[in-house]
């Protein structure tokens, strides 16, 4: 019996060993193995190795695979990142035959992908060589850096990556529509939002997308306006021309606005709901606003219509009705104080209502204070009731009593703004600052916004000089919205004299024959040194005449790249290039 039991146990143990051997020999094992050689010039590279009874082709590099890498979170040195960008550019341009512009944009605007790619090699020494070798044997999923370069966050990529595709050339329809949008003038950084919200736009048959863009131009809209519209509201490209949008245009035209006025105030910060805009216009019409009053209101407070699509108007109107104000009283408030419908005024007024409710004031008293002091309430941002009570050493009931007796004094005490600092700020060159502020308001800047503050700090010169330089852009052929867009994106443009701006515009036309609208897509063009512009344009034209460069490259591609990169891709590409480049630099054209 004992011998029989031992034999059974030995048999079971032998069977377990055989099973284990089978698993070890024939089951796939995945592990990271650093391959090193004794050759000191070779840099060790971590590669993914597979041991299996069958073949595997899972060799593509993916961002999502490397998120667990310990080196992912470490910051890369600037040198390593620059070298990696160069390697990725060469891979996309030379190996995968991407156009120069596409390869450059992707390599420079996909930092997350690059960081993950660099996590697959050891160290930061000789990054270019190590990464080049890695890419030689490990093809990447090209959709990942491509979509990231269009302005999408890495967290958004997994749900947008196409299944079973890794090369952009596999989806030629998407790529064709992408190039249509680029050629039309839509910034690449905005196309990611369009792809995320309206993927079907990128599946249109050849020529259909261009026709849809052209359809909006037939309404009378300029190309820069259409560009902003579809960038911020890509749903306009789905189906036919949006009927509600057309109605909004017709209503604004009836109010006295030019058709391209809408393009100057669109923003990516909020979504445009055209039906809500129509409802807002109808509402103001019903409460008694004349067309002239609405024109004045929107001209001064365009944010009321475009930020939130008029939602705050309904919100404020409903709160005032709940407080007990009659329709004719609200109408009188709106007519006598049209500025209260601006975004900032509505916000301050709603905060003031909440303040009064929090300290226990009745609806009738609140309505009375609003009717008597609405301008004061709209102009001040109040502290929290608890803070005011603590500063004045009173309870909420005491605060409510003081508010009823002397609301003006208490609002001064409860205001977040320091009156003294405001007076001091305005006392330093008051008229000059006021004139510049007025100039910016005319261009569509929001009053007291960070954008306006930044522009005021960058401007040099008097208001009349700034206006002269702005007019120079308009007289050259830009519409006012296009010129305003340039100033908003690059305020320092107006620091250059009218003569210098005209010379740079002349260079654009005489050297390249580009339309003036190309500056809207790259406002920094007007900030580059005139000699840099002339030299690089001359070299580019020389290459195009010999068929060594593609036509209509973007201004940023020609001017923003470093001297070394320009030398490599615009000088050394032709046998006579270096000699011609030296001749251009040594014999500048006469001014």
3D structure, described in words:
By secondary structure, the chain is an all-alpha fold. Helices cover 60% and strands 2% of the residues. The protein has 32 helices and two strands. The chain has helices at 2-26, 78-95, 100-108, 111-118, 127-137, 143-149, 172-184, 188-197, 208-217, 223-232, 243-254, 274-286, 291-300, 303-306, 311-322, 327-336, 343-358, 363-379, 385-392, 396-405, 407-414, 419-427, 430-443, 450-458, 463-476, 480-489, 498-512, 518-521, 530-545, 555-559, 563-571, 577-586, and strands at 29-35, 45-51. Strands 1-2 form a two-stranded antiparallel sheet. α3 crosses α6 (143-149), α15 (311-322) packs parallel to α17 (343-358) and α17 (343-358) packs antiparallel against α18 (363-379). The protein is elongated. The protein starts with a helix and ends in a 5-residue tail after the last helix.
Average residue-wise pLDDT = 77
- Determine Rg (CA atoms, Å): 32 Å
Q: Helix coverage percent of residues?
A: 55-70%
Q: Reading side by side through the largest sheet, how are the strands ordered?
A: 1-2
**Shape category:** elongated
Proportion of residues in extended strands: under 5%
List strands and helices in order, with pairings.
Elements: H1 2-26, E1 29-35, E2 45-51, H2 78-95, H3 100-108, H4 111-118, H5 127-137, H6 143-149, H7 172-184, H8 188-197, H9 208-217, H10 223-232, H11 243-254, H12 274-286, H13 291-300, H14 303-306, H15 311-322, H16 327-336, H17 343-358, H18 363-379, H19 385-392, H20 396-405, H21 407-414, H22 419-427, H23 430-443, H24 450-458, H25 463-476, H26 480-489, H27 498-512, H28 518-521, H29 530-545, H30 555-559, H31 563-571, H32 577-586
Antiparallel strand pairs: 1-2
Helix pairs in contact: 2-3, 2-4, 2-5, 3-6, 11-12, 15-17, 17-18, 20-21, 25-27, 27-29, 29-32
């Amino acid at each position: 019996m004992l011998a029989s039991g031992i034999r059974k146990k030995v048999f079971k143990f032998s069977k377990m060993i055989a099973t284990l051997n089978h698993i070890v020999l024939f089951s796939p094992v995945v592990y990271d193995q650093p391959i090193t050689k004794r050759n000191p010039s070779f840099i060790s590279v971590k590669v993914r190795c597979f041991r299996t009874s069958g073949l595997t082709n899972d060799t593509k590099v993916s961002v999502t695979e490397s998120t667990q890498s310990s080196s992912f979170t470490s910051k890369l040195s600037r040198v390593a990142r620059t070298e990696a960008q160069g390697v990725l550019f060469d891979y996309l341009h030379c190996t995968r035959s991407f156009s120069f512009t596409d390869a450059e944009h992707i390599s420079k605007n996909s930092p997350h992908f690059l960081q993950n790619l660099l996590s697959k090699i050891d160290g930061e020494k000789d990054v270019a060589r190590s990464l080049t070798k890695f890419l030689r044997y490990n093809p990447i999923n090209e959709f990942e850096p491509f979509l990231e370069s269009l302005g999408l966050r890495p967290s958004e990529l997994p749900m947008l990556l196409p299944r079973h595709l890794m090369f952009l050339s596999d989806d030629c329809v998407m790529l064709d529509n992408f190039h249509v949008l680029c050629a039309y003038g839509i910034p690449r950084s905005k196309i990611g939002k369009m792809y995320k919200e309206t993927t079907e736009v990128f599946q249109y048959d050849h020529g259909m997308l261009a026709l849809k863009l052209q359809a909006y131009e037939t309404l009378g809209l300029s190309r820069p306006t259409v560009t902003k519209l579809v960038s911020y509201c890509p749903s306009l490209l789905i189906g036919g021309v949006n009927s509600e949008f057309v109605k909004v245009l017709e209503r604004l035209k009836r109010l006295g606005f030019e058709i391209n006025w809408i393009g100057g105030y669109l923003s990516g910060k909020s979504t445009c709901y055209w039906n809500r805009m129509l409802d807002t216009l109808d509402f103001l019409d019903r409460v008694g606003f004349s067309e002239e009053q609405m024109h004045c209101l929107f001209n001064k407070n365009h944010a009321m219509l475009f930020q939130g699509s008029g939602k705050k108007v309904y919100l404020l109107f409903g709160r005032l009705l709940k407080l007990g104000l009659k329709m004719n009283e609200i109408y009188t408030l709106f007519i006598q104080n049209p500025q209260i419908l601006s975004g900032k005024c509505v916000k301050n007024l709603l905060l003031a209502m909440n303040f009064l409710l929090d300290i226990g004031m009745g609806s009738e008293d609140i309505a009375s204070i609003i009717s008597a002091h609405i301008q004061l309430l709209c102009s001040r941002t109040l502290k929290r009731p608890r803070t005011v009570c603590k500063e004045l050493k009173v309870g909420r009931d005491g605060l409510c009593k003081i508010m009823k007796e002397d609301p003006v004094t208490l609002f001064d005490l409860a205001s977040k703004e320091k009156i003294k600092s405001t007076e001091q700020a305005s006392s330093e060159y008051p008229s000059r600052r006021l004139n510049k502020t007025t100039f910016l308001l005319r261009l569509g800047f929001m009053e007291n916004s960070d954008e306006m503050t930044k522009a005021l700090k960058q401007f040099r010169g008097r208001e009349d000089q700034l206006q002269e330089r702005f007019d120079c852009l308009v007289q050259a052929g830009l519409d006012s919205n296009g010129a305003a867009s340039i100033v908003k994106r690059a305020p320092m443009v107006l620091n250059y004299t009218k003569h210098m701006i005209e010379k740079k515009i002349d260079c654009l036309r005489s050297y390249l024959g580009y339309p003036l609208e190309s500056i809207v897509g790259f406002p920094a063009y007007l900030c580059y040194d005139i000699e840099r512009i002339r030299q690089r344009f001359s070299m580019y034209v020389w290459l195009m005449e010999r068929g060594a460069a593609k036509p209509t490259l973007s201004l940023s591609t020609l001017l923003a790249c470093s001297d070394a990169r320009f030398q490599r891709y615009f000088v050394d590409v032709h046998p006579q290039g270096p000699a011609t480049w030296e001749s251009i630099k040594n014999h500048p054209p006469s001014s």
